[in-house]
Each structure stands twice: as C-alpha cells, then as structure tokens.
Amino acid sequence: MAVKVQWPPHLGARLAALRAAQHKKKLPVLLVNYGPDVSYLTGFEGDDSWALVTPESVWLITDSRYSEQVSRQCPWVRMVVRKKGLAEALARIVGRSRIGSLAAQEESLTVREERSLRTALSKCGHKVALKTAAGLVVPLRNCKDAVEIKLIEQAVAVAEHGFEKLKAGLRTGMTENEIAALLVYEMRRRGAEDASFETIVAAGANGSLPHYRPGSVKLENNSALLLDWGARVAGYRSDLTRMIFVGQVPRKVEEIYQVVREAQQAAIAAIKPGMTGNEVDKIARNIIKKAGYGKAFGHSLGHGIGRDIHEQLSLSPRSTVILEAGMVVTVEPGIYLPGIGGVRIEDDVLVTPGGHRVLSTLPNDIGSARL
Amino acid sequence: MAVKVQWPPHLGARLAALRAAQHKKKLPVLLVNYGPDVSYLTGFEGDDSWALVTPESVWLITDSRYSEQVSRQCPWVRMVVRKKGLAEALARIVGRSRIGSLAAQEESLTVREERSLRTALSKCGHKVALKTAAGLVVPLRNCKDAVEIKLIEQAVAVAEHGFEKLKAGLRTGMTENEIAALLVYEMRRRGAEDASFETIVAAGANGSLPHYRPGSVKLENNSALLLDWGARVAGYRSDLTRMIFVGQVPRKVEEIYQVVREAQQAAIAAIKPGMTGNEVDKIARNIIKKAGYGKAFGHSLGHGIGRDIHEQLSLSPRSTVILEAGMVVTVEPGIYLPGIGGVRIEDDVLVTPGGHRVLSTLPNDIGSARL
C-alpha cells in the first residue's frame, strides 16, 4: 500500500485557501491546467501536467517524461501517468471517482481543450457537468506568502548581481546582443534558472521602443543604454529597469530621466494597503503629464510579479485592484521620444501591512546612472 | 493619404495560402490571436497583438508599446493602436467594416477570450456570428518556405557553434548551471536571440529525467553529461541533444548509447514524403524494444520545429501525419534508466522532395561523444 506523504506546510496552506475559495464558489472539484498554478499548488516544476483538486485528493496528471520528477518533487500528490491525452486521463479519474460536476478556469482553458474535455467526459460512464468559471488560483497568487517573498528577493538579488558584474565589464563597442548575453550569463552563473523574460538592451535611440529586442547595434560613447531584465529563481521572477549613461548623453534624455525618477519615487512612496491600482498609477502619470510628456508614457505604471512575469494585478489607469499586504508589483514609469531615446526606471515593491518595502536595492539617482 | 506598402513576396505567399484555406473552409474573416501565427503572417515580432485577416485587409491590433515597432517591421498591415482591450478594438473594426461573421482559432483562444469577444461583438452595432474552428494558420506552418528553412539552418548553426565552444571549455567540477550558462552565452554572442527553450544539462544519473533542469550538481570524471539545447534566430528554433562522456562512463550507458544511435539513424534514413509519423516512430521504437529497452523509451520520437519548439506535427505511435517536403522535425529517441542515467540523441531533419536532409552537422558516433 502506498504510504501517504504529508504536504509541506506552505503548500498545505495554499491548498486550504483554494479549497475555501472552491467551497465559497460551490465548485468542489477544480481542474487546474495552467502550469504556474499547478506548480504553485503542488510543488511540481514541469510542464504539460494538470492538477485536479477534489475535497479528498489532489491528482496530478502527467506523462512518462515527468514521472520520476513528480515522485521526487511532490510525492504528496496522487500521480497519474497518462498514455493518451490529458482530457482522457482526467475523464478516467472523474469516471472512477464518480465525480458529478467539475469546474475549469476560463483564463487558461482553450476552446479546443474545453471541447476535448466535453467529449472525453461524455464517455466516462456517467453524466458530468462541466463549468468554466473565473480562475480561483490566480487571485490567491496575488498575495505572496513568506516562502514566495524569499524567492522573489533571491530573484532580485541575482538580477542585481548580474547587473553589477555587467556594469563592471561594460565597454563601448559591445553590441546589444553581447551585453544581453553577458547579463544573462552572470545571472545564471549566480544560480538563476534563466532570465525571467527576454532581456531588453536598447542602445541610444532604440530606448524609445519599450519592448525593443537586442540586436547588433553597438554601445557608443555619449549615449544612453536602457536595460530591462530579471532573473528566475525556483520559479519566481524579478523585473528591473536601469539606464546607463556613457559619456555625455543628450540633455533631453537627462531631463526626462529626472521626470521619470520623480514620478517613480512619488508612486512608490504612496504604496500601501488600501490604495487602488489606478490611484498609484495616477500619481506617477500626473507628474509626467505636468512635465509635458503625458503622451510619451503610453503603458501602465506596473504589474504584479511572481511565477508569471505579468501577473493578474496591475497599476494602470483602469486598474481597480485594492492593494493588500503580500502583493509584489513593479513600478516602472517611462518616457519615450522616437528618434531621441527613452527612459524607464523600474523597481520591485512589496506591499506590507504598514506600507511597502522596495525589494530592489540598486540606486537609481542620476549620478548612479553614469558609467 | 496613407501610402499602401507592398507586402514582401514570402509574406504575400503565406497570406495567399491562408486566404485560400479560409475560402475553402468558408471562413472569410479570421482572427489570428496566437503570437507565432501573427509573426508568421505579418512579420511583426512583438507580443499581445492580434491580426484580423479579411478578404480586403490585414489589420494588426496592438498597443502603444509596439506602435513604433509595427511601423518599422510591417508597414504593410493596417495598424490599430488600442487604448482598451483587444476584444473591444476588434469589435470596433468589425463594426466599422460591417463584418457579419468572424472565425477564431480554437487552439489559441481561451474560454475567457471567447466570452470577452462575444460581449464586445454584441455591442458593435450589428449582429455578428462568431465561430471557433480548428486553426488555419498552424497547418500552413508545418511546411516551411525557403526563408524559414534558412532561418532554422542559422538557428542550428548557432546552436552547434555554442556546443563546440562549450565542449572546448568543459571541465570536471563545473556545475550543470554553469554549463548551461556558458552554452547559452556562446549562442547569444554568436547572434541567437535566446535559447530556443530551457536548456537541459543533466550530469550522471540525472540524465534519466528527460526534462531535467540544470542545478548545482557538478560534472564528475567517469560520468556522462546529457545536453538538450537550441538557439532562436529571428523567431526560428533549433533543438539538439548530445551526450558528452567524461572519462570511463558506466558500461550500461555505452550500451544504450549504441542502441539509441542505431534507432535514430534508422528512423532518419526512412524519412521521406509519404511516410507517416507513426511509421517513422515505429522504426526507432522497434530497435529499442528488440534491445530490451521498450519501456525505457516513454516519449515520442520527434516533433515539428519552427517558430514554436513543439509544433503541431509529431513522430509518435499515434501520429497520423503524412510527411511532406518542407516539414522540419526532430528525431530524438532515448533510453532512461533511473539511478543509472539516460541517453538521448537528437537531430533536426528537413523533409525534401527526394527524401530528407539532416540540418544538424555535429557527429554523433560514440567516439565523438567522448570528451
């Protein structure tokens, strides 16, 4: 007989919170098919696997590539190693356990998967009601527990280490690609699993493209470099942006740097439980508007980070989220002037019961931007 | 008045093929909401953007972060810079253009997005029929055109360059993390945008976990190292696996290496137009079975590569795909023995009118595996 393995306390607490949400929404059986949600709940760090949370059990449906890994990483789940599709394996559990109704999360289930599920469930031997509802795991993930905060802090520390190593070795003539390669290398050597998203390295006027990808453009003297990067550590991500000024940058760039920094500092200072996402966004946006650059700041002020690089909550003009202790958000205003360049400054901020704590520690005054 | 920019010929041909498929399926207006599909059709390389293909136009709905990039990368589309949600922006085009029926691809549309679309379309001023159907772009992407094959070849070349640089610098005592960091660094320095997926570096017995992630385990003398890696170049991906034997590896590992290699060579030799995915898989699988390791080869033989690392077509026991010239597949049999280690060998193979061409050039005989 299989020995039942105890859930570790932090995962047990997440599961209890999910089951409470399921109870409240009257959705006792929930399919969790989104990878980061599955990892958050079970501790399993692989792909292509679904969790099924019932009042009695947590099933993990995976395939042979991951069976040994599941046994190592999360012996507390009931593993099913599928031979056919995920939907068929799920229907088998539903059939055997006589589950009468099942919910799935509408944000992560595709229309194709919903169809496959309905087909598979129709053959499971009894009638099953399938309901697609707003996700229950994603809202839980907004507020990080102590284990998660520690991992995000590590992801920040590794990203900052990489930046400092890069800055020490930075030379004019290096291409954006080389700079990105070196930054990611230094983060990985220090223990990052990977970059937390595609590193942005934009030299000179390329900085005006907020999501620019590095290319073969070289770093020149008397120009600005924009770096937007992060590290992933044990599934958790950091997200930072810094400018590096090499020599004398255009006066306009220095001017917008000061505006962006003032906007960022003011927004961070206001962060505390009870503030809404749009209130925080407005503080930064008003400062940029007043300086005459309102139209040059087209994106949101920030977003939640964690297992995903863009989590559900956002700091934006339309965001109604009420900040709570445990939320971790980026604060990243920017001003983009096509043909001239762009400035963005980004830090990661934890909402605390008493206000906030900035998790990132790299200075961002204009003096520190100079190489 | 806006000047109409001509589509480049290769994109024009893809668009013509899509419109022919739309005509055949009687779906004249198609929403394309999957990033790699959007890039394939339009040339735009950013995220969070949808394309709408009508008989007259190709619209690209994006946001302010990407507006300058769209103007540079694909001036031939009709760009819409949205202020609100994607669904609302789409409904506005549908309303103004008096589009009466619209299809979306069921594999990439979430249930949530379908709901948002239906809500937005219901407010567009006239009745619109929304149909979700099997994707039309993904099947087109199975067969690569000359531009795509060239990019995959570049992605292979960069990955091989990285491997050779790594091998030259490989030393016992390096951790899996350091090895992965160095490999990715060398690929990026040579022009890869990024690794094409999370690099797998598994030392010793870790090789028995097909999707192992690198950790702090050190490379030891008299052990085997499994590397599964690739590069992304201009959106296209390579995917290779090689073993490196340091000193004298366990005899069992040498034995399964020979079996895996024989299986791989036989499967590659059989690849030509008209073969089915399961036929090719069976050739490799039978050799592994005959050697007594059938249960130790749990995954598929291979998969299509291109803009995605796992594309639609597969070489597997259940695959009914008929190979056609232009398809690019991985061929990657493996044998995994928990506690002892694992062996996998993987190359990238183009189906040609006369048979096949192996795009990867690194030798894989057992002699070349030895460091």
- What's the number of structural domains of chain A? 2
Number of strands of chain A: 19
Topology order of chain A in helix (H) and strand (E) letters: HEHEEHEHEHEHHHEEEEEEHHEEEEEEEH
CATH topology of the largest domain in chain A: Creatine Amidinohydrolase
Quaternary form: homodimer
The DSSP helix count of chain A reads 11
What distance separates the N and C termini of chain A?
64 Å
Q: Please, what is the CATH homologous superfamily of the largest domain in chain A?
A: Creatinase/methionine aminopeptidase superfamily
Question: Can you tell me the overall shape of chain A?
Answer: elongated
Which architecture of the largest domain in chain A would the CATH scheme give at its second level?
Alpha-Beta Complex
Radius of gyration of chain A: 23 Å
What structural class is derived from the secondary structure elements of chain A? alpha+beta
Main pleated-sheet profile of chain A: 6 strands, mixed
Uncertain parts of chain A:
none
What is the CATH class of the largest domain in chain A? Alpha Beta
Q: What is the strand arrangement across the widest sheet of chain A?
A: 4-3-2-1-5-6
Strand content of chain A: 15-25%
